[in-house]
Amino acid sequence: MTITVQIPSALRRHTGGAAKVNCSAANLNELFTDLGTKFPDLTAHLRDENGQIRRFLNVYVNEEDIRFLGGAGYTFKDGDEVLLVPSIAGGI
Fold this sequence. Notes:
The chain is α+β, with helices and mostly antiparallel strands. It has helices at about 30-40, 45, and strands at about 5, 20-25, 55-60, 65, 80-85.
């Protein structure tokens, strides 16, 4: 099963500039493991020190927030498109 992961520009420095990555994963844990294997520097931006999804990382599957699809327990389907969106704050 192949899913496509869209990497936002804020994280591309950890993927060698890749904007899209194809992965084989059944769920979010497997996806993060696969991405961490391909791009070790990316792992710290996906998971916290307890191995949980980072608090300020939003994950969308086919434009739907994964939290509303069952969260980390969601089972990917062949052809799913995953978008990783880190929250970025700023201001004056």
